[in-house]
TrEMBL record:
Keywords: Membrane, Transmembrane, Transmembrane helix. The chain crosses the membrane at residues 21-41, 53-73, 85-102, 108-128, 140-161, 181-202. It comes from Natrinema limicola JCM 13563. The keyword Transmembrane applies. This is Uncharacterized protein. It comes from the Archaea.
Amino acid sequence: MSVLRQPEVLGRTTRRRVVGVTAALSAAAVETVAVGCWFGLVVGSRTTTTALAGLGVLFCGSLLRTTIFGVTVSDLGARLQPQQLGVTVSLTAGWIVWLLVAELIGESLGVAVAAVVFAGMLTGQFVLERHTFRQPTDRWSFALAVPGLLLAAGASILLATVWFTDWVISSSPYSLGSTTIVLRIGAIHLGVFAFGLFAFLAHQRRFQRLLDP
């Protein structure tokens, strides 16, 4: 009997893993786009308009990422809940605090301190997110903090590429009719890519722990 049931069990396990990887990719893509746009708006010449626009983009991205988490692990994610807005606000506030701490201290020390603070805030936000969607919450452990550390590391790399590097790689000009195309890759592009990679690893670990039996 156990032999006959094994293919079904393996099928469910495979489906859960596919769902987890898909959800992690979706959450990482949303977060990368939202954080990248927000970062691009506020890291340069910051005005009231760019600050508000960046805040709006960051909030919408946080709301969508929270919705992806809820839809994946709970039926409650299919409709907007007041508690879900609280989770979204906490995530948005975490990003703002991270950047403020880094800017107030400055230099490499600011990046390091902000990363530690942000990792702690993200871990708390993950716990709140699980509680909101009625998922079992692990006891405080290093394993629970790993996704927060990964996201904070990705954010630190993104910030460091803007603060401490200033290079651009340009391709040779390509003529397309009357238009000349030049491809440029700057340090910030690699920073965004690195952040997206760390974000995927963080979310994949979160979904794996919740979806795997």
